[in-house]
Amino acid sequence: MKLKLLLPTIALLFSTAVYAQDITADEIINNYFENTGGKEAWGNLEGIKMTAKINQGGMEIPVEIVQLKTGKMYTKASLQGKELMQNVFDGEVLWSTNFQTMKAEKSDQETTDNAALETKDFPDALFNYKERGYQAELVGKETIEGAETYKVKLTKKPKKVDGKEVENITFYYFETENFVPILQETEIKQAPMAGKIQQTTMSDYQEVEGLYFPFSISSGIKDMGSQAIQIESIELNPEIDDEVFMYPTE
User: Fold this and answer.
1) Region of residue 106 (phi > 0: left; psi between -120 and 50: alpha; otherwise: beta)
2) What residues make up the domain containing 30?
3) What is the CATH number of the domain that holds 136?
4) pLDDT tens-place string over residues 20-33
5) Does a structural domain hold residue 244?
């Protein structure tokens, strides 16, 4: 009886050891960047401007998203003839348009500091992750919507929530065939959704000046629905006037 139980255990341990030597998290990440344009090209990228549409209750909302290597960023939505600026960062001040008053409001210092931390991940948190002081670990394999994936855990520098440092971890699911991520998962640390999982799915990778980007993105809370974002165009290294990022004065 003991021998019958022992043999499957040995076989399982042996298969796990073989699998562990098959590929590493570092190799998966390197393959990802090489397959989507090459690390040199990604390293030379100075900025990204995306034009997209969000379907909200049957209404299409045009959206413009800009991220620059300098850390500056903004999201601009056009709604009923008005432009709403969200998550605008000029390198020091983080602000957004209040939907009710339609006036610009600055974020608190903790939110601003966390945003500044995220902007340093351009063009991707996985890019040169070791130099950023991050750690990547291959967790295993999982099947996501019929696709076999490698699950990689990326541990970044902690964020702050209510003055306390909290873990900053993202799980990436890479297709085993072409090494592009099709799903990201992050645990929400702030109320009212604290403890729930934020999911972002990516698909329809297309080439833009030699680099590949997902043109279909969906983001939401796990098991609670998601919001689809359809990318219409992507411009690399756009020229953006610095005044766009500045907090408006009366």
Assistant:
1) beta
2) 23-78+109-239
3) 2.50.20
4) 448 999 999 999 99
5) no
